[in-house]
Amino acid sequence: MGSLDRKLAPVDLSHHINLKSRSRHPSPLKDIIKFMGYDGMISLAGGLPHPSLFPIENAQFDCLPPPSQKTRDGEVVNLHLGRGPSAGDLDLTQFLQYGSGAGNRQLVQLATDLTERVHAPPCQYECLLHPGNTNAWSKVVGLLCEDNDFVVVEEFTYPSAQALWIPMGIKAAPVSADAEGILATSLRDTLENWDEKARGGKRPKLLYLVSVGSNPTGITISARRRKEIYAVCVEFDLVIVEDDPYYFLQYPRYSQEEQQPFQAEPPEQFLKSLVPSFLSMDTQGRVIRLESFSKTLFPGLRLGYFVANPVFTERLLRVTEVETQDPAGLSQAFTIALFKQWGIDGYLAWLQNLQYQYKTRRNWLLSAFHDQFEVLPAAKSPVPTAQGYVACLRDKSGKLRPVFSFVDPEAGMFVWSKFYFDGVPRFVELESQSLEDPEQAFSQELWEAMAAELVLLTPGSYYHAWQGPDKVSTKARGADPRSAYFRFSFATPTKEQIHEAVKRVRTVLDRLWEVAARDITAT
Amino acid sequence: MGSLDRKLAPVDLSHHINLKSRSRHPSPLKDIIKFMGYDGMISLAGGLPHPSLFPIENAQFDCLPPPSQKTRDGEVVNLHLGRGPSAGDLDLTQFLQYGSGAGNRQLVQLATDLTERVHAPPCQYECLLHPGNTNAWSKVVGLLCEDNDFVVVEEFTYPSAQALWIPMGIKAAPVSADAEGILATSLRDTLENWDEKARGGKRPKLLYLVSVGSNPTGITISARRRKEIYAVCVEFDLVIVEDDPYYFLQYPRYSQEEQQPFQAEPPEQFLKSLVPSFLSMDTQGRVIRLESFSKTLFPGLRLGYFVANPVFTERLLRVTEVETQDPAGLSQAFTIALFKQWGIDGYLAWLQNLQYQYKTRRNWLLSAFHDQFEVLPAAKSPVPTAQGYVACLRDKSGKLRPVFSFVDPEAGMFVWSKFYFDGVPRFVELESQSLEDPEQAFSQELWEAMAAELVLLTPGSYYHAWQGPDKVSTKARGADPRSAYFRFSFATPTKEQIHEAVKRVRTVLDRLWEVAARDITAT
């Protein structure tokens, strides 16, 4: 299931596998399977239902072609999956029957081909199917973590990923980031100065990253920063989990110029434009990459794959056998049939169109910011910010007041913003009361005021790295005072909705920040 | 998601939920969802990819009709799933997008309708979708078990179910069975006399059963026995997990008479012929039923549902959100479309055909036994057996020698058999050596001799309840000496293959048991 030729052998990382995972045994039934292939053998040993009794005969899917194969507008391609000997190697029957846990051989080969084409990992690896990155992460935590461990994450991290491990008593060891991603120096500091006693747990050995278009921050870790982070992980023997659903949704920075119509580049040029993955620079086998088709085909597919050191995939296969078995058969069949039709080149052209669509949506949101606020680059910001840009309003005296800073995301579906509460009357009032967390209290009021104005953002508090119940408030987390974060998603609304939504945000801010409600675009 | 009217309220069973499961919090994003429905609201809060960018436009499945709807041979019905407003309530888009974890509302309703129709549970319950019983059991163990617990199981149990929990240090507390299922008296004894110190763990609070057509034993627990077992579970506060993939594959006992051609009965008559489930007699909410479409539609679907006390399904939903999310969308869409076409009555007719097909296959195997051996009912057996029937060979002096006893299964896909080694020369030889487990050693040789004769059975040792590393040998387990078990599966081979396979088994037995190889059918 992998590509083992001419690759570096991984270093020994078996000590990362936890006690429970180490004690899993392969099913003894596997021993029988090799006998089943003998000439003339009659097996009364299997337990599979009879495939003639599955009620489905044919499956057909009408699909969009990738841009490179488009001939006429609205034309669809038809994928047909039939049963029986005439169906060849795409015989639907195999996808209706139980699988072995390892997934369909052709799909694993496809995963391997894609991995070689996109990442060309220097180290030996295997691909193993899984039913989506949510489940994949759950299996990785089951593989590597013990109760009460620490996991290194970004300061703002994907909430479902930590909701999984919080009940295990696991805590986050957060590392702060700038526009290029988490700081390798901070990571190194955290690890080097780890005090087991003060922390109440062992030095972390696992780094979890959504390294491209991070949810929520939108940050994509730069190539240079990746090298620095990888070196720290080698020094302190960390395993890197690269959860990367947005890898192919990388796009250039926002510019106010007229957008060019979509034009697919040659596949190799497209691939060269993408930041190199951690997997592509992993010379030791310490990167576990979680690949998903959820953001590139569709989420309901519930299909993806691990790319990892065989010492990890072998254990992940053991847990797959008892926790999930193969991903759903129709999902596997659809995906293989689609790739047979599209080819990998067609898929890479499809991805470029996706990239273009999400870039367009990002542009809608940022141009709405420019319409409603005066936007300054960080260098010219009246407040220090690592966030790229600052959206300002002018107060009655004409003075620029920074309202929020934001990241211009180069990937993904989100714009992360930091709101500044300094001098905001209601916040000042809350701060004068002896509340435990005036920032959180005002954030909540601000969110409610926006909801009353019929616009919903996601509160930044959902994404705080979980450091335990004693480190929840702004102060206890050591976060910047007089500020809080919100996430804007641009994936689903229309251009008009996005502009209207930002206008409503401004209405609320005008009122709460007590600045003059005048048309900035007219200045 | 359930049917709460006119039902008994469950007793409080929340103390069964383990510490980790209790500490799971619902995603804070859920709080936002209710705001999304407001008139005129624009949400920049969601994180869903844009559905116009999913490449699939239509899905079509050609399906077999249920026997009740058959008009012409070979006719298929076409299920069509399209996208957009004209697609109505089966709009494919919803199945391509992320779900909420709770599954599609229509499918949950279907699960509820099926549950009412088949089981009419007396107590309040909810249905929650899952991606197959393997995953469902993994979630139930995650809900109820702590490390180093004990779980009550049948003496011979489904190996993947225990492979899941063995790494947690969990052990089986096995209960022996007769032809009507596990003995309620033995269950009571085990629980009443539980010695925490001697056992090294707390009294079990969980009973796991494949209660119809058990894998491997083929036993279906009788209605009378179920009532006795349920009463013991109430007395000792046990939760019953009813893993029941073979429920609809119940059929009458074997008879040597000519088989009647298939004829579907009216649905209510069919349902009345089935043994009542534990769920149907659960007046307290202590049954968690695992339902699967794997054996009734097809395994690759990876779709089933829990039927359980809402106090359990609420926690199971929490873990679904972080461990698997919704089952695969195409599987959900296919299943709803199929039921819309077939109706529940059509499904019940389909099941009767399945039942007939597996009964026919069971008959092929048992008639092959009758062809190759002299088969006596247990009452006339030369050896005491709880197994129903004994297959005998005559030795050179013409004396009947019992070779193996077997269950005539009334459900499922397997015949469970116990082989008697008394007086078998090679076994006597092995017994005279001071081996730790001569039974296991001879079993292995017997299996290899059959494999060399080109017939594969599954060794019974795969199904031994796991009581720890010190209780593996025949003696340490307290199992009957001079015997061992094998499982025959009749699900996949043809009639000719089954007859040939049993003939090969006999060839091996003739040789190893040193009986005359003469044609018994001719006597």
UniProtKB/TrEMBL annotation, chains A, B:
So which cofactors does this thing need? pyridoxal 5'-phosphate
Q: Where is the Aminotransferase class I/classII large domain?
A: 94-505
Q: Does the keyword Isomerase apply?
A: no
Q: Which InterPro entries match?
A: Aminotransferase_I/II_large, Class-I_PLP-dep_aminotransf, PyrdxlP-dep_Trfase, PyrdxlP-dep_Trfase_major
> GO molecular function, one example?
pyridoxal phosphate binding
Keyword Transferase among record annotations: yes
What's in the keyword line of the UniProt record? Aminotransferase, Pyridoxal phosphate, Transferase
A biological process term (GO) from this entry: aromatic amino acid family catabolic process
Q: Which family does it belong to?
A: Belongs to the class-I pyridoxal-phosphate-dependent aminotransferase family.
Q: Which PANTHER family match?
A: AMINOTRANSFERASE, AROMATIC_AMINOADIPATE AMINOTRANSFERASE 1
Protein name as annotated: Aminotransferase class I/classII large domain-containing protein
